[in-house]
């Protein structure tokens, strides 16, 4: 079959199914079927790279990392909005409109939830997404095209391709569930948490490496077109309908209001409704529906006259710090948690708030017994804004991070300059238990039958002390335990057996090495392919891996050089645990893991051909004679590179030997 046509067909099919899944929430095919279509597309694109188009779903994976964001200037600036804080402000807004327009007939409005995310602009040319940018200062934003392409709900291609240039605006955000899952996994990796979904969305979009953005649960709602009249639409309502037809996600809570009273009523409805939405909103945007009126009204310096944002009042309340608990995390990090007198903050009972760390407590000068101002940041995590010093009583005691671990009494450590206090006792039971829970959890090896409760039980029973113990559990160990029967024991054993050959990256994440999250783990898997190799890599060698930072490099080396860890690895091995590199295709390639360089004049190949051959066979090209280089291919009249490579004891082959090797005529060793 004509590959170009098949690709076109696959792009259409995948776009359609992705829209049904992400936007309409009404999939027609199973995940497996979707995957098969996607794999077919990838296979064809791999074979015919020149057929890859900007609107191919393969582009959602992320592509290459940038050094920095470039700037995007826009002809029509993205404006901001004036705020209204009560009914009177809305009546005043309407009065201003009428006076400005010198009309009596009151307009109708569109009321839209005000999403608490990041405004972005998407540019489509002939129906294909060609650019995406942040709002920036309104006129100049940053080009985040690659990052935005990874957001599944953003169409890469429109239904209508005859519009020429279309500039569409909307909000990228993270819903509550996605935000909580992301923070949970960051807590487990010992990475700093995002304060609220807005920051998480912003942090995810502003990643230079779009592959990281691709892993973040970002969503999108569209709300405007830069030059709406060009779409032929006469009202905001029509534009929203038009955008929905183009398969953009349009917020279903947008309503048409025939007058300002309905707008006010809708604001009340939305104030009640907001807690039931699965994402955060911080108010409601009211827009004059009619574009002819909008155009006449125009804009002041930064905000249009035809729209206004009604903001929800911040949800704050006062309470009292009753005591402070200190939690020991998996990495030994101590987190102080304030236990509060239960208080209603905007409809939610709050009785705990994180105090983050010792520095934060000092900064806010918090005492036990203090009356404190509580706020639900964004809307989810309660936090203490400040103490109310006038209400402090003599009995109030300053909060102090203890000297010893509350779980194992080992002296705690706080590194110079760092904010986090840690328990560094590797035998600390709290840390061990948390490591076990993480190892088995979804973020780790995802072992069937070993949820948090079961792990806690087996730990308390003394059946599992360290991670490898999980693989040595037997039928007899389990049956007879409280709550366990034949079936659950069987399920667990099947689960642990299946988990014995995890993908290497997953295994590394499950071990919970500090600074080794998913992205780093995959980089390590790709670069080293085996656990054994990884254990003997030096810090300097790690630093030569592009994308691996100093903190991660040191952390991995420290981890594997710890005798206790080495013993644990032995134990894993004895239990039959064999992490495997999943990119097996790459592994089988002749030059995978090899870094080559050419020098001198090649007789049979051009440089471009030679480099292409290396890449096709899974190898990399070195930038010079570096430590990373594994082999130098020499043509005629080689220069100083040859000497340098000889000096470093690198492997050296001729052009002919290189070709033989690729033809399988000699072994690469
Ligand atoms: S309209 C000129 N509609 O609010 C019109 N904005 O201060 C301005 N926002 O940065 C944008 N939801 O991020 C509009 N339904 C909505 C919105 C919305 C959220 C944000 C947007 C913008 C800010 C305006």
Written account of the structure:
By secondary structure, this protein is an alpha+beta fold. The protein contains 25 helices and 24 strands. Helix 12 packs across helix 13, helix 12 (429-440) packs antiparallel against helix 16 and helix 16 crosses helix 17 (518-528). The protein is globular. It binds 2-(butylsulfanyl)adenosine (IVH). 2-(butylsulfanyl)adenosine is lined by residues 79-81, 112, 114-115, 119, 135, 171, 223-224, 285, 304, 307, 309.
Précis, in short:
With 669 residues, the chain is α+β, with helices and mostly antiparallel strands.
CATH superfamily of the largest domain: DNA ligase/mRNA capping enzyme
What is the mean predicted local confidence, pLDDT? 89
* Fraction in beta strands: 15-25%
Assign the CATH topology of the largest domain: D-amino Acid Aminotransferase, Chain A, domain 1
